[in-house]
Amino acid sequence: MSVLDWLLDSDPSIRWQVMRDLTGEPAAIVAAERSKIATGGWGAQLLACQRPDGSWGGGALFPEWTSTTHTLLLLRLLGLDPTSVQARRAVALVRDNVTWEHAGEAYFAGETEPCINGKAVALGAYFGQDVSAVVERLLGEQLSDGGWNCEAENGSTRSSFHTTIDVLECLLQYERSARASTDLTAARRKGEAYLLDRRMFRRLSTGAVVDPEWLQFSFPPRWYYDVLRGLDHMRNAGVEPDDRLAEAIDLVKSKRSEDGRWPLENVHPGRPGSVYFEMDEGVGKPSRWNTLRAMRVLDWYERGVRKPG
Question: Tell me: the pLDDT tens digits for 265-274?
């Protein structure tokens, strides 16, 4: 079985992205496959776990990883059609009932930490909710080095990769789903430059690897940064590849197995029973999610560097 056939022999949430990003199927075929997420497979299973009060797991952010936020993030990663009846019904329940643990704020009003507000914006923009006030807050919290940090309120003046990737993903989603602006795009590009200037995983000051765990590819990423997550954002944002990405791309290539697949290298810990179900076969085994993301990142990079100057 070829790698593409192996990827297609899976859940609709993977199949539609393979069709869109790797095999170039017509838009109508991609949309038809995507529509199955709401009624079958992992997407339908997650939707069925929503409680009558609108939450998943009984809370907005907790418990990890079965809470409302982490489940909606998964549904977004799967590609649940936000215009589907199932998505609209689920998100309306969240909007009308779920509040943040911080101080009881309405869910799509966000709370105080930029990493959490980044998630709220990404979800609100994707699912058609008004998160404009949260976006304005995030734009005002960008640090001078280009990124964001949840510890800024405690005096930190240096950005965090973890927080920055959350905010970058949300700004891109907002630009595409809600309302783009010159200021918004400029802030996102400045944040992307923060990662690029650090070669996606190195300290600007010394060139040292910031955290060896970022070199391991996880799925789902949860709130953690890793190199593959960062590269997949750059691909999604249409960043033009340059030599600042070369080392990170070499890292992706180095992890490809002889059979053309990528393994799941890490699973972010949680309490026992902290997932509804598994979407990969386990650490060390071939991962469809990592393989899909790595293949589309390499395709984006190689097409970009071959572009005539």
Answer: 999 988 667 8
